[in-house]
Design brief:
47% of the residues lie in helices and 16% in strands. It is an alpha+beta fold and 500 residues long. Helix 2 runs parallel beside helix 3, helix 5 packs parallel to helix 8 and helix 16 packs across helix 18.
């Protein structure tokens, strides 16, 4: 059983003396915490006795009263101050606040070592510590009992709810929605509280935050999973502290690792299917059957291509779609995330929302049939290129004219084949870098020297390559009209994904 503050005062060998807060002498002391840091309440759990030499103790009345208010709020059992050390004079308001709150303030007689008080409390709480150890062991055993099965629901959260005798939720850090699509789902007031948890008080590794209704929620970090948090609702007089929450969060982290491993296996098989759809190399009948088995009807599905500043979000796009129960297959190529999803507004908006404000997203027209899969992929890439150039977050193919004034993929493809086709073919056969040289030549305002420096080649090499470009295309790089056509062809090739 825990020892009370009164029982500590009654131990003659500790030589403790009461300063104020007599009404709180029956508060239970579960453990001690020694700190001389500013705002020490951030490091103290409920039931703990804070011991201090007063090195950072506020000297003013407002600061001293605020210290007691915060210790009372987080449920500390009392405050013990070393005599003849560094503590400034206690003000009258401090004493009045201690009496008002019923928060005991004790004096530790010099030179009594703090560890003697800690040892006395530890000996008195051996049974409780043994029970905590058993609960910790059962928390880790919960993972063993929940391994396997459907990953759409957090079975660990269910097991922890039973073990801790408190509702437990695994939440997305930003939205506070349930991380798993099947939950368990936190109540609305808990979600609002979790979203503001960064403003809460740190309690031994978890943040203690109150809902508008006054319900305490402990919010803990989930190790190795920065986008998830653990939320535990402390109900009634249930004995629960930040240490147990930390252990629970570790178990949740292990479950999330297993979940992501299963999702990665699914993503890899989907990536192969996506690549075949993009290349147009898939067996139409077999591909249609695969898409339908995943909940994707080719008639109404669209291709989406997306980029963004946060590559981790791009690579985890499949996780975001899984969490929203949106059928999908995805692939990640050269910094671009590609996906096939239902062509609904909700599905498209889910991608935009999951990638953040820096995202640029291009969406194709409906695929309609398997024979149009490669064309749909090019449409999405074209729309993405337009979004990048115009800095719009979302562009749907066909909804707006490209910034180049080129009508669409077919027109762009024709322009690339007319002006760049001979260069691309020559580069493929002779590895001459004509397209790269033309791009650099125009980007450097047709300066031979600057182009040579940009490509790290000799100036004569640039002269030779540009003459070869003119020979193969029939264009003259002194003619403004020909320069414009070649520049438009290069930009069209960019919008087509550079693969034309």
């Amino acid at each position: 059983m825990s020892i009370t503050v009164r029982e500590l005062l009654d131990m003659p060998h500790l030589q403790l003396r009461l300063h104020s807060g007599k009404a709180g002498l029956d508060r239970q002391v579960t453990w001690t915490h020694t700190s001389d840091l500013p705002e020490p309440w951030q490091w103290v759990s409920g039931g703990e006795l804070l011991m201090t030499n007063g090195m950072s103790f506020p000297a003013d009345a407002d600061g001293q009263e605020h210290l007691l208010d915060e210790l009372h709020r987080i449920g500390a059992s009392g405050l013990a101050i070393g005599e003849q050390m560094y503590c400034p004079k206690l003000t009258g308001r401090f004493t009045q606040a201690s009496e008002r709150l019923g928060l005991p303030v004790l004096w530790i007689r010099y030179p009594m070592p703090f560890v003697a008080i800690s040892r006395a409390i530890a000996e008195a709480t051996l049974l409780e510590q043994s029970q905590r150890l058993m609960r910790t062991a059962r928390i880790y055993d919960a993972l063993r009992r929940t391994t396997g099965g459907d990953v759409a629901r957090s079975r660990t959260a269910d097991a922890l709810t039973k073990e801790l005798r408190c509702p437990v939720f695994v939440c997305d850090r930003v939205t506070a929605e349930a991380y798993h699509p099947d939950g368990p789902h936190p109540p609305a007031d808990v979600k609002a509280t979790v979203r503001t948890a960064s403003q809460g008080t740190l309690v031994a590794g978890a943040r203690s935050v109150l809902t508008p209704g006054g319900v305490e929620v402990l919010v803990g970090e989930v190790p190795t999973h920065d986008n998830a948090v653990l939320a535990v609702i402390r109900e009634g007089s249930v004995a629960l502290d930040g240490v147990l929450v930390q252990h629970a969060a570790t178990v949740v982290a292990l479950e999330l690792s297993q979940t992501h491993l299963a999702l990665e296996h699914t993503r890899r098989s989907g990536a192969e299917l996506t690549a075949q759809l993009m290349d147009g190399s898939i067996d139409r009948r077999g591909g249609r059957r695969q898409l339908l088995s995943l909940g994707l009807d080719p008639t109404h599905s669209v291709f989406v291509s997306a980029t963004g500043a946060d590559e981790r979000r791009l690579r985890d796009l499949h996780v975001a779609l899984w969490r929203r129960r949106i059928p999908h297959v995805t692939a990640f190529r050269s910094g671009v995330a590609h996906a096939v999803i239902p062509g609904t507004d909700d599905a498209v908006e889910a991608i935009v929302g999951s990638l953040g404000p820096s995202a640029r997203v291009g969406v194709s027209r409906a695929m309609q049939s398997m024979s149009r899969s490669a064309e749909s992929a090019r449409e999405a890439t074209w729309a993405l290129g337009t979004a990048q150039r115009t800095e719009e977050q979302l562009v749907r193919y066909g909804s707006a004219t490209s910034w180049l004034g080129v009508g669409g993929v077919d027109d762009a493809q024709a322009m690339v084949e007319r002006w760049l086709g001979p260069l691309i073919e020559h580069d493929a056969q002779h590895r001459t870098g004509l397209v790269e040289t033309l791009e650099a030549f125009l980007a450097n305002q047709r300066s031979w020297q600057r182009t040579a420096e940009a490509l790290n080649v000799h100036r004569q090499t640039v002269l030779y390559r540009i003459h070869k470009v003119e020979e193969l295309t029939g264009a003259h790089l002194t003619d403004t009209a020909d320069i414009a056509q070649l520049w438009l062809a290069l930009r069209s090739r960019d919008l087509l994904g550079g693969s034309a």
